[in-house]
UniProtKB/TrEMBL annotation:
Entry annotated with the keyword Glycoprotein: no
Pfam families attached to this UniProt entry: Acetyltransf_1 (PF00583), CN_hydrolase (PF00795)
Family: Belongs to the carbon-nitrogen hydrolase superfamily. NIT1/NIT2 family.
Protein's name in the database: GNAT family N-acetyltransferase
GO molecular function, one term: acyltransferase activity
EC number(s) on file: 2.3.1.-
Domain of life: Bacteria
Length: 520
């Protein structure tokens, strides 16, 4: 007898994280597991992978998906005892996923009926438990269906039914399984899943406690998380050298450090001040000569950020790349690292006079003061960009701008304040003032820079942390509180991020979707 090829008998069962390519199979699995319930939409599952890919699992057997589960992290103390599935999942989109939360919340488990005695559910629950240990979470909480309750509804209340199952007098395929897996019943919630007729819309709220949980001091509830911002309303005037420009910039960074600022924010294209000594009158040629100072500009601000221990939003600067000119804003972190954001929407003036090309990626940057975004002037007037940045975790949007008249300035200001309200985010605008008589297309400037908040009781009365006097060279210093922002997003008078109708509309970002912000 020849030696057996054992590989022909192998059928691999793998538990792994869900991938985008699994979505079509998950649709088919859901139709089989829950034929009478409202199914996932593709946007739901894509949202799960965007916000918490580590919390989504599938079981793959012989190349086919036969089981799956979805979950998110929450701070469960912030939710009402009688919450519904829609409440805890933001209607299935899990945009309320909180990386700083204490509890893993399981929102769905599916196992193909043909494989329900192969410990598929147990494997998925073990994956969740391992995830809770890895993330050092206090517990796993689930809202469990009781699908056999409809058979006993006329004779037993939900509480009596749960007691009978717990005493093993009645078998329930979900509740019995959860009890065996170490979950205890906390309470019974009515109207948890409106389309779950088999459970008569009830669910058992159950918890598994992580005995390996270690208290972390840094995760204690914070009463405040202030971030201090200094906005520079920069005076555009004729100068004679890069060294003179550098001295002016260092002066303001020094002031920011004296005030204990976490961020110093310069305006859009304030480096065009260098054109005043370049002696080039043709605007399209002048910007290319200006781009020759890019390395000097980057070296200067990198040095200042480290020397004065201040994160610097370096306004924006015209940069030549592959023979094209871009309007780029740089983030100079105080640890010496650098990021950049291209201006995405180019104004007619920029295109006509300077030949500026648009960027195509919305970025969100990690800093030692949380996640931030930069949207240069005209970009803040397109609400999709701010919404996408906030979806990626931004708490502050910095807006360097340069406008020549009051109407242009008000477009930036009104839109920045609107973005703050509709996205529950802080916005900061920094503009140029003065004039440069020797520079073509940089004739006059108008600005009133400021720091803006959402509009609710815990924020400044008018949604304004501080603002400069119009059209003078000055600064404004103000504190924004990220802890207040976090609380208001969850329990404010209005909650635009959680209440938006994702069932009716969604934002699809078409270009550079491979960009993902670093996770903190």
């Amino acid at each position: 007898m020849s030696k057996l090829d054992l590989s022909q008998f192998e059928k691999k069962m793998i538990v792994r994280n869900t991938q985008d390519g699994d979505i079509d199979q998950l649709f088919e699995l859901q139709k089989i597991c829950f034929p009478d319930m409202e199914p996932w939409e593709r946007e739901h599952l894509q949202s799960h992978l965007r916000y918490f890919p580590e919390g989504q699992f599938v079981v793959e057997f012989d190349g086919n998906i036969i089981g799956s589960c979805s979950s998110l992290i929450v701070n469960f103390d912030e939710y009402d005892d009688k919450h519904t599935w829609d409440d805890i999942t933001d209607k299935g989109y899990i945009t309320n996923h909180d990386p700083e939360g204490y509890n893993l919340y399981g929102i769905e488990v599916m196992v193909h009926p043909k494989f329900r005695r192969m410990k598929i559910g147990r494997r998925l629950y073990e994956a969740r438990k391992e995830l809770a240990r890895e993330y050092n979470l206090k517990s796993i909480i689930i809202g469990g269906r009781i699908p056999n309750y409809h058979k006993y509804e006329s004779d037993l209340s939900p509480r009596e039914y749960v007691e009978e199952v717990r005493n093993q007098n009645i078998y329930d395929p979900v509740l019995t399984f959860q009890i065996i897996n170490g979950f205890t019943v906390m309470r019974i919630n009515p109207n948890y899943l409106p389309d779950d007729e088999m459970s008569s819309k009830y669910a058992t709220l159950m918890e598994w406690n992580n005995i390996d949980y270690r208290t972390r001091t840094k995760r204690h509830f914070k009463t405040s998380h202030p971030v201090r911002i200094m906005v520079i309303q920069y005076m555009m005037k004729n100068i004679n050298s890069f060294e003179e420009f550098s001295r002016q910039c260092e002066y303001y960074v020094d002031v920011a450090a004296d005030y204990g600022a976490d961020f110093a924010v310069f305006p859009e294209i304030f480096t065009t001040q260098l054109m005043s000594f370049l002696e080039e009158k043709v605007p399209s040629k002048a910007v290319r000569r200006l781009s020759d100072y890019t390395e000097d500009y980057i070296e200067m601000f990198t040095h200042l950020a480290v020397k004065y221990n201040v994160n610097i939003i370096g306004g924006s600067h015209f940069v030549e790349e592959d023979e094209q000119i871009y309007n780029i804003s740089y983030l100079f972190r105080r640890d010496g690292t650098i990021e950049k954001q291209y201006k995405i929407h180019v104004t007619p003036n920029e295109r006509t006079w300077w030949g500026i090309q648009p960027g195509d990626a919305v970025k969100v940057f990690d800093t030692d003061c949380g996640k931030i975004a930069i949207q240069i002037c005209y970009d803040i007037q397109f609400p999709e960009l701010a919404r996408y940045a906030v979806d990626l975790g931004a708490n502050i949007i910095f807006v360097p701008f340069c406008t020549d008249d009051r109407q242009g300035y008000l477009r930036v200001r009104y839109c920045a304040q609107a973005r703050a309200v509709e996205n529950q985010v802080y916005t900061v605008i920094a503009g140029t003032v003065g004039n440069m008589t020797q520079v073509e297309n940089m004739d006059i400037q108008y600005a009133q820079s400021g720091i803006f908040t959402p509009s609710d009781f815990e924020f400044a009365r008018d949604g304004i942390v501080g603002e400069c006097n119009a059209n003078v060279e000055t600064v404004v210093v103000g504190d924004v509180d990220l802890e207040i922002l976090r609380r208001q997003r969850k329990s404010g008078t209005v909650r635009q991020l959680r209440d938006r109708r994702s069932d009716l509309f969604d934002l699809h970002y078409k270009v550079n979707t491979e960009y993902k912000p670093e996770r903190t």
